[in-house]
Amino acid sequence: MPPDPPLIVRRLGLVPYLESWERMRTFTGDRGPAQPDEVWLLEHPPVYTVGRNGKGLPERRDIPLVRSDRGGDITYHGPGQLVMYVLLDLRRRRISVKGLVTLLEDIVIEWLGTLGIAGQQRLGAPGVYVGTRKIASLGLRIHRGCSYHGLSLNVAMDLCPFSSITPCGLRGVTVTQVQDLASGITVASAGSALANAFERALSQNRSRQMIL
Known about the structure:
The protein is α/β, with parallel strands linked by helices. 29% of the residues lie in helices and 26% in strands. The longest helix has 25 residues, at 187-211.
């Protein structure tokens, strides 16, 4: 099995949603078979986004709404939330879409555990939860065997805009954030920790494939 190109991690700061979406589509549409995979760590200015099959709408009109091509229903992005976009060649890495979702959930749960936060998965509702409250959301798009979009983790943000939607279309689910459960965590530190964990998980997945 030939080695995978090195994973490139880009820390992009605050980027408008439409700009990052266009960059992801261009990157994925133009990439060749030898193109290294990338992880983008960033934040978005306030915006609601709805996945391609989503039907949710916000009650408030002072925050822009974008209909995206990712999976999932409606969610909110804003400063203080870590957004981690994963641009992977899944065929080259021999990872299924379900496998990528599980991997992303696992690294968030593992990292939360180091902070004393008990994160968990929920059957049929991708993301990471702390009890009944959602702390991380997932939404992916696959084009020609390559992924884009990814996960968002509430770190230290204004959660009020979530009250104007049904997060991810899940009734009875509220949201929480790392800041309210552990101290001293920033978007930058969370991003570095999850990017490192993601790279390790990809390496472990490759090692298992080589054994098989």
